[in-house]
Design goal:
Blueprint lengths: L7 H14 L8 H19 L4 H6 L4 H25 L3 H15 L2 H4 L10
Helix pairs in contact: 1-4, 2-4
Length: 121
């Protein structure tokens, strides 16, 4: 699998099958999945904790750290796709809609080269 050849729907289906095969649907509430997303996000943050901004940009060049980062990103994605499955969210449509809102909220001529505002997400 690679990003250039795999659709979001294919990944959502893989995640759904994994959950279904283990009879975990009963635990896949929006509350539990949103909390799991936060936990996994924290685990990703832990990898970067106490690094400088410059060090954080090159941390992935260490093979072990890169694997840890990849694993945490995958965990985040799995929970995100599970939440989309449970809520019936079309992630591509949601991202497209949100980016349109972001483009209106942060026009290039006013935002270019400036730090991102935390309200973008």
């Amino acid at each position: 699998m690679s990003d250039s050849k795999t659709t979001i729907q294919q990944i959502k289906s893989i995640v759904k099958k994994f959950v279904n095969d283990r009879d975990w649907e009963q635990y896949q509430s929006p509350k539990n999945l949103s909390m799991a997303l936060a936990v996994e996000g924290s685990e990703l943050m832990e990898i970067y904790q106490w690094t400088t901004t410059d060090d954080s940009r090159s941390l992935h060049s260490d093979a072990k750290k890169n694997q840890d980062i990849s694993d945490e990103l995958a965990d985040i994605a799995v929970y995100l796709f599970s939440l989309c499955n449970v809520l019936g969210v079309d992630l591509s449509e949601a991202v497209e809609s949100k980016m349109k809102k972001n483009n209106e909220k942060y026009p290039v001529e006013l935002s270019k080269g400036k730090p991102i505002n935390s309200r973008i997400i």
